[in-house]
Write a structure and sequence with these properties.
Distance between the termini: 34 Å
Number of strands: 25
Bound molecules: adenosine-5'-diphosphate, glutathione, magnesium ion
Structural class: alpha+beta
């Protein structure tokens, strides 16, 4: 059944049949198509449906939720008629709950909207990893806050990158300009989301590995509050009340709004408003509205404006208080401004104006820089966490346990070695530029070509290299407007939302406020929900 194309080490396997599961091939007697990673010393292979080694628990044909990670909702995923009826009910419930996106045809209008894509069933997540992700969130908040206050660390870390990456350089220029003038802001607010995948180890265990931390426009906390009701509905229709009760309640938008409210209160001007910076063409407006609504319920008013509006109608008084249309602004919340395409010359000027003001920016420019991939890579260097979080060895250990392999590509021997390793084993690495929003990373042959092109150029310092996480796939059914329900091999990414507020040197809030599970088909290496690749999901703790 299996055809060995090359030698096992570094080779590629192929076979006849339908891949139904994938797992680490070192620890199993069977082998299928997959990738062997000479760096890790192990790899993964597909389990083929007509393989004699196929076991029901691993293949997803059983209906039990107490067996291995690969097991999905078993026979439920095989009954096409039942799936169609369940999908109809799930979509109607999602619409009723407000799990909504504007359409790609009319992204500036809410006249006709549709449901945000989601999985029909919740996906299994080991409870221990969920708890670990929650337990490390306050440490990540502290770390981001520490990096944002450490101008020397930011300058050293980003110096090679900003020579070749004009977007990061532009952000950095604003950072320097504001430092030079003196920071007027005294209250700091971080709303972030740390994202993880579940690395499948050769011994069958799974480990929580951070993909990245989002320090600007960390989204889908609003819609994630509404999806538990949808999955509970689906399980209840199936009479699975015990399983329905296991879906965790989740309310990130409330927690995020509480952070904004605290910052607003500390700013200390009863009539000041919250300014939400967003584009007019914003499909994810209902996610943003969830936070706006929570704030209004606390009698805090939010005005939505574009960068263009700020440059036309925004101003600072002599104390650098920010005014928009004549109204004072206490907090500026960015749901825009995280990609180069978001900025015209006029928009960069608006960003600088906002940054110079004493309003609470979420994030301020230093915190946005703290979320770059280059900073993430430097944080994994020996001794760096210890110097940023002195006297906190437990926090350092918790943070480090979530780090995957991260490699600098700065010119020099260390970068040369990383490039050689990645070219020798492309399936084990991801090449990342300093970009946000999904769809920017390079994998496989594309990564090899880019590395060969960049090898002798300073431009390589604008990228980092990261170990590729290989979660064990499972089956679920993805629901998207306009497409038939699709049962497919998937992997998930878990995000934990974190909030902190600092007044001067005093941290007045530091907590986690909920989670986001996103799931995508294994054939997509990259991309989240906004990029049209992943769909919303809920963890089913096992
Ligand atoms: N190390 C990795 N291993 C496996 N997949 C990854 C890795 N890094 C990123 N990805 C995939 O690529 C997507 C985008 O990468 P990410 O670092 O989150 O950048 P962005 O800022 O564009 O969201 C992730 O959501 C994940 O699906
Ligand atoms: N502008 C949109 C999208 C913002 C966005 O893409 N945010 C990224 C972080 S920079 C994110 O959290 N993406 C999650 C996803 O798309 O799945 C919004 O404000 O909701
Ligand atoms: Mg991401």
């Amino acid at each position: 059944m299996f055809l060995r194309e090359e030698g096992h080490e570094g080779g590629v396997w192929s076979a006849i049949g339908t891949p139904v599961a994938r797992r680490c091939c070192r620890s199993h007697p069977w082998q299928g198509p997959g990738n062997w990673c000479p760096v890790r010393g192990w790899g993964w292979c597909f389990l083929i449906s007509d393989s004699p080694d196929l076991t029901p628990d691993r293949a997803g044909v059983g209906d039990s939720m107490t067996v291995g990670m690969a097991t999905g909702w078993g026979s439920l995923l095989q009954d096409e008629q039942q799936l169609e009826e369940l999908a109809r009910q799930a979509v109607d419930r999602a619409l009723a709950e407000g799990v909504l996106l504007r359409t790609s045809q009319a992204p500036s209008s809410s006249h006709v909207v549709s449901y945000a894509p989601f999985t029909l069933f919740p996906s299994r997540v080991p409870s221990a990893l969920l708890e670990q992700a929650y337990a490390v969130q306050a440490d990540f908040n502290l770390l981001v806050d520490a990096v944002s206050q450490n101008a020397v660390f930011l300058e050293q870390t980003l110096s090679s990158t900003i020579k070749r990456d004009s977007f990061t350089a532009r952000l950095f220029d604003i950072h320097k300009q504001v430092l030079k003038e003196g920071i007027a802001q005294t209250v700091f607010l971080g709303l972030n989301r740390s994202d993880y995948m579940f690395q499948c180890n050769p011994d069958g265990t799974t480990a929580l590995k951070q993909i990245e931390i989002n320090t600007i426009s960390a989204s889908f906390g609003g819609l994630a509050s509404r999806t538990p009701a949808v999955h509970r509905h689906v399980l209840s229709v199936l009479g699975k009340t015990k399983e329905a009760a296991k879906i965790l309640s989740n309310n990130p938008s409330k927690g995020l709004a509480m952070g904004i409210a605290k910052a607003w209160e500390l700013y200390g001007s009863a009539n000041a408003q919250v300014l939400l910076i967003a584009q007019e063409k914003e499909r994810n407006i209902f996610d943003q509205r969830a936070i706006e609504n929570e704030l209004l319920a606390r009698n805090i008013h939010v005005i939505r404006r574009r960068f263009e509006d700020v440059s036309e109608k925004g101003s600072l008084d002599q104390d650098r208080r920010l005014f928009m249309d004549g109204q004072e602004v206490a907090v500026v919340y960015f749901r825009d401004g995280y990609m180069p395409g978001h900025y015209s010359l006029q928009n960069w000027e608006a960003r600088l104006l906002l940054e110079r003001s004493c309003a609470v920016k979420c994030p301020d420019i230093a915190t946005q820089l703290a979320g770059t991939k280059k900073v993430q890579q430097e944080l994994s260097r020996a001794g760096v966490l210890e110097s940023l979080l002195p006297g906190q060895p437990e926090a350092v250990a918790r943070l480090r346990a979530t780090f995957a392999g991260l490699y600098s590509l700065d010119l020099g021997e260390e970068g040369d070695q990383a490039i050689t390793k990645a070219i020798a084993a492309p399936s084990c690495f991801v090449l990342k530029p300093q970009r946000e929003g999904g769809g920017n990373n390079l994998y496989g042959e594309e990564m090899v070509q880019a590395l060969e092109r960049l090898r002798d150029s300073e431009e390589r310092a604008s990228y980092i290299l990261m170990e590729k996480i290989e979660p064990e796939p499972f089956r679920n059914c993805l629901l998207r407007p306009g497409s038939p329900a699709q049962v497919i091999q998937c992997i998930s990414e878990l995000g934990i939302f974190g909030v902190y507020v600092r007044e001067g040197k005093t941290l007045v809030m530091n907590k986690h406020v909920g989670h986001l599970l996103r799931t995508k088909a294994i054939e997509h290496a990259d991309g989240g929900v906004a990029a049209g690749v992943a769909v919303l999901d809920n963890p089913y703790p096992v």
